[in-house]
Specification:
alpha/beta; eight-stranded mixed sheet; binds S-adenosylmethionine; Rossmann fold
Length: 325
Amino acid sequence: MIAPALPAELKAALDGKLQGFSRSDAAQRSQKISTTYRAGGGSGTIKSDADALAYALARMPATYAAVAASLNALTGIAPDLAPETLLDVGAGPGTASWAAAEALPSLQDFTLLDANPTLSRLALELTRGSTRLAECRYLPGDAGVNLAEVAQADLVIASYLIGELSEADQRTLTEAMWAKARHALLVIEPGTPAGYGRILALRRQLIAQGAYVAAPCPHEKPCPLIAPDWCHFSQRLPRSQAHRQIKGAEVPFEDERFIYVALTRAPPKSRAARVLAPPDLGKAEITAKLCMDGGVALTKVPRRDRAAYADARRWRWGDAILSDS
Ligand SMILES: C[S@@+](CC[C@H](N)C(=O)[O-])C[C@H]1O[C@@H](n2cnc3c(N)ncnc32)[C@H](O)[C@@H]1O
């Protein structure tokens, strides 16, 4: 399990870039970027080095935390997964590669691909002082065009990317990313109903091609949730002083809502129920919303069953519950 906070080398690299960079300018730029993003404009508004840095300072801690939590879920279900090569599609400032380097010591070779040259430049500058990523390769250009030319990788990650594409492009890219994934594909999106919808479509498309779901679902059946319910998770992360200033925030933490799917070529050796919401700790019992092989159920664990109750007290939203735990 890796922590949700940025690793020390990345934090130091970002802090170094902050020297001489006005925080109010960064705050304004990141506000403009997130307004465009919410209006459906994606990250296309990131045009200058200052924009790229403002984006990284404001968003990298949260997207890193979401990727870290998703990788923890994947490695929890597939502990034998030992990828040596990574392909980070829509890598932006390199967030997912940093998280993967932390979570998977087996990784030796990192390829980052992105259409935005400004973000790519920043990613390369940030990785310069990294023990693991200094030798990474950065491929410029549109993934829809370039992926065909790229070598397969043991693990492919697309973090906060597919929401920037049209539905047709999402389908094409899904196909292309799966073709490049030798062992596993991990896709992460914002934890909104729309992000969930995109993950569901990708999950459906690749199960039809023989993919297995390692996490979060304990099965390959259709998602049992019924709208307006949607599957998502939440990861708390610390906010540094600079991060607080840039986001105009008071509290020293942030909760990032996200959704992900981790697909593998081999069937997972174990299956685990997934906690879909914060469990309710009542006086007489704990009630937890669990996604299981048979569907979603509100599971009740009575206090009188002391051992089970003690276990259930440790359950957190997003956790995997193995049947013997
Ligand atoms: C929201 S950012 C996420 C960056 C990074 N993966 C993260 O999680 O922090 C989306 C990234 O996808 C890239 N992108 C969008 N469409 C792309 C495409 N068709 N080909 C390659 N990169 C693309 C953008 O340039 C941007 O860097």
